[in-house]
Amino acid sequence: MSDIFREVDEALQQDKLLKIWKEYRSTIIAALAILILSTAITSFYRSWDTRRDATETERLTNALQADDPQAAIQEVIQDTRKGHKALGLMSAANLYLQDNKKTEAAALFKQIAEDRKSPRNIRDLARVLYVQNAKQADISLLKPLLRDDKSPWVWHARIEAAVFAAHNDKDYAQALEYLEPFKDVKYMPASLKQRALALTDVYTLKLQKAKAKNPANTPATATEKK
Length: 226
Known about the structure:
The chain has helices at residues 2-64, 69-77, 82-98, 102-113, 120-133, 143-146, 154-167, 172-179, 190-213, 222-225. Helix 2 packs antiparallel against helix 3 (82-98), helix 4 (102-113) packs antiparallel against helix 5 and helix 5 (120-133) packs parallel to helix 7 (154-167). The chain has a domain at 1-65. The longest helix has 63 residues, at 2-64. By secondary structure, it is mainly α.
């Protein structure tokens, strides 16, 4: 008897499926077609994107090996994507640094830093390198990076900002404020932390000497400001 009930139940289920198929088959077929097409498009784009990345990387590599790499790089970046354009400009800037042409290199670093379409990490690195090499650096270019604790370049930016404040503005209190967070950070390259701590010692001494010479006009230290 149970076999009969099972057969009836299966027949009813098949009948329901048949009715659903007849009523919605055009919709089902269209949905399947869209799924297959979207999968094919995604696969094609990924393949095309990988091939183009490889092609543009090869073009940039060849440009670096050309007789006139600066001119070759400029030609490549005219019709390349933003990520490769930023890398091309970084390569061109590095060539200028090798020739001790810091002004030209700084101009390219600034161009990368101000281009919002460049990859974020490359843009942040360019901010730091610009301040390092520019004769009259626009320190405001570092401000977005100084507020971004998640950037891998934030600590380099703090050091550059401190050096700028101390050497250009003679503002040792401001320099120490940039360097203050280093003492509480455990995980960072040892050389970077050692440099920050060494600068802290130097600028603390300079601030003390400045206060001793002219206590009335000497800016407060970072601790005193609080």
